[in-house]
Amino acid sequence: MDRLSTCFAACKTQRRAALITFVTAGDPDVAATPAILDALVAGGADVIELGMPFTDPMADGPAIELANLRSLGSGTRTSDIFALAAGFRTRHPDTPLILMGYANPMLVRGANWFASQCKDAGVDGVICVDIPPEEDAEIGPALRSAGVHLVRLATPTTDAARLPAVLDGASGFLYHVAVAGITGKQQAAQASIEAAVRMLKAATDLPIAVGFGVRTAEQAAAIGRVADGVVVGSAIVDIIGSHGTAAAPFVQSFVADLAGALIPRTQETAA
Amino acid sequence: MTDSLTLPNSLRSQPDASGHFGAFGGRYVAETLMPLILELEKVYKAAKADPAFDEEMAELLRTYVGRPNPLYYAGRLTEALRAQAPAGKGAKIYLKREELNHTGAHKINNCIGQALLARRMGKRKVIAETGAGQHGVATATVAALFGMECKIFMGAKDVERQKPNVFRMKLLGAEVVPVHSGSSTLKDSMNDALRHWVSNVHDTFYIIGTAAGPHPYPELVRDFQSIIGKEIRTQILEAEGRLPDMLIAPVGGGSNAIGMFHPFLDDPEVAMIGVEAAGEGLDGKHAASLAGGTSGILHGNRTYLLQDEDGQITEAHSISAGLDYPGIGPEHSWLHEIGRVKYVPVTDDEALASFQTLARLEGIIPALESAHAVAAAERIAPTLDAGKVIVINLSGRGDKDIFTVADALGAEM
Predict the structure, then answer these.
(1) Residue A268 clears pLDDT 50, i.e. is over it
(2) pTM for the whole thing?
């Protein structure tokens, strides 16, 4: 089994949701990123999403947009990001690592180049915000033949009629974007998250992770009771924004709080 | 995806069913927007097939916008260029007077069409991005006309350098949202408009100002702007009894140019020149995506972009705020690759000179965008036989630019 499947299976055995944490590569700079990634793992993150910075992150709110600009402002290059990924893979052989970002930096040297870089660096999956299923040919085939998961997004506007198109070619897990909006803004009502997860679970065997607007341990715990994974991004990125190169210990303690909240479900509420 | 070099029978039949113009175009948006984009495509198809939509659009263009606007023979410009040309050279130059439209540019053609679509979709709120403010003013205008709520996203830098248009939009009842992210110019206002849209998909329609963005925008904006080329066709046949030898239009995103070119794409005797903003020159800061860019993905479409080797978007520069964008509409990228349209660069300085030339010779102050096309015509006309006919798209009037021009010339107002 690959790292992602192993990880979600292990969490399932422990009857808890996986904690998926996002940071932007090279934020505040490339030198500071390894310690921050290590802090995520030490704090109890199960899966790491590493953001590839882009000049025009139009699906992101101010927190992650600023992280993108901090990273690019400090000179982060695509080659640095793959070096960070490869270093992470050496230090953490079992923790799944996902690259998340926008199509242009991923595809500028061609999809095959990108996919083989991912494979060589030990990247397990890719989330590309602006490649919908309709444009899968740009990136999907290259990732699949390199054995890298293409993680798809389902949103509040993805209705039952459209869902099969999203699931066709999706792998690793399904990322449910809880709010129709940008990252780090409003949070979704728990009831609507539960309804969405039920609909998605009925349509796929892929693990369902829920993200966008999840900022506190309480929210994470509530979502963790129904979903297979909880994604937290902007709240961690804000900590990096405040503490800069000294952020690692603060990140670790925040992530530990989140992980502590994802306690095993009781027999009654286990799905 | 069709190979961009395998030509279809008609060059006017693009895009294909999935919104591609050869290797360009497409729908590169977040999943949240996909259902809405697909719905817009459906609504647009239905509108296209509905004579009532056409009739209402035509009526508004006639009574509200002031169409058809004239095709004017620029006799003094023609003669001035002939005077410097070798004997027997110096083509006849006509101006398509888009600057005489209500709100002073071609932008309103598209805004009327999209507002009609917004109404069909039951959306009561419209948003738009704007650079120079022309598209913002046109959107605010149609929002007032249709009784819709209107928010305009405008780079903070542009809010500063286009104050009269900001005030115009406010007078028209729109809210102007200054955008401080990135370089605080047109591309950043588009980012923030997209962010707002994705957060308000249920009740908001995004009126994109140029023939770019995710499918079906490049197609529908082109169709709404094609009134320009259709009128030229009728008017030049009346004036000259034949089609023109050459069309010249400025290209930022390229909506006025594609609107002018599209009705002539299948007429091989009509040459077409798109004029890109070369800013300080192609070696310096510029906004010429075709001359200085490479294929990439931004703002919902694959097209030529100014970018570095990592795919990070680089800042565009042009003295004309309306051309200050690091991309270009996808149909232009395709027409460039197949060689049907030739794209040439014109610098800030050349545009400034032509801005003044047209004012003095013809009594018409062109928008700085349009002045780029005039500059290209000044270069090309003296090389063509005197019997040849050129039409320039005078896409907008220059009132909005007088502060920028005064500043560039070091003149006291």
Answers:
(1) no
(2) 0.95
pLDDT tens-place string over residues B218-247: 999 999 999 999 999 999 999 999 999 999
Interchain contact, A158 vs B199, CB within 8 Å: no
Query: Model ipTM?
Result: 0.95
Label residue B24 left, alpha or beta by phi (over 0 means left) and psi (-120 to 50 means alpha).
beta
Residue B22 Cα distances to A133, A224, B213, B302, angstroms: 19, 45, 16, 10
B395 labelled catalytic? yes
Structural domains of chain A sorted by starting position, each given as residue range(s) with its CATH number in brackets: 3-265 (3.20.20.70)
Q: Label residue B377 by pLDDT band (50, 70, 90).
A: very high
Shortest Cα distance from A248 to chain B (angstroms)? 27
Mean pLDDT in residue range A234-246:
97
Q: Model confidence over A103-157: pLDDT tens digits?
A: 999 999 999 999 999 999 999 999 999 999 999 999 999 999 999 999 999 999 9
Query: Which residue from B343, B410, B398, B359 is spatially nearest to B74, judged by alpha carbons?
Result: B359
Q: Residue B84 has which token pair?
A: 């410097």
pLDDT score of A270 more than 60 = no
Q: Which residues of A touch B32 (CB under 8 A)?
A: 155-157, 177, 180-181
3-state class of A191 per DSSP?
helix
CB atoms A56 and B298 under 8 Å: yes
pLDDT score of B2: 47
Nearest to B32 among A61, A77, A177 (CB): A177
The answer to whether B34 contacts A134, with C-beta atoms less than 8 Å apart, is yes
Would you state the pLDDT for residue A266? 63
In chain B, which among 36-75 make CB contacts under 8 A with chain A?
Answer: 36
- Minimal CA–CA distance to B298: which of B14, B35, B24? B24
Is A14 exposed, middle or buried (CB count within 10 Å of its CB: 0-12, 13-18, 19+)? middle
Per-residue pLDDT at B1: 45
- Asked if A78 and A114 touch (Cβ cutoff 8 Å), the reply is no
Catalytic residue numbers of A, as ranges: 49, 60
Token pair 């007032």 is found at: B144
Let me know the angle formed at the C-alpha of B38 by B25 and B341, rounded to the nearest 5 degrees.
Answer: 20
Length of chain A (residues): 271
Q: Residue B127 and residue A255: Cα distance in Å, rounded?
A: 38
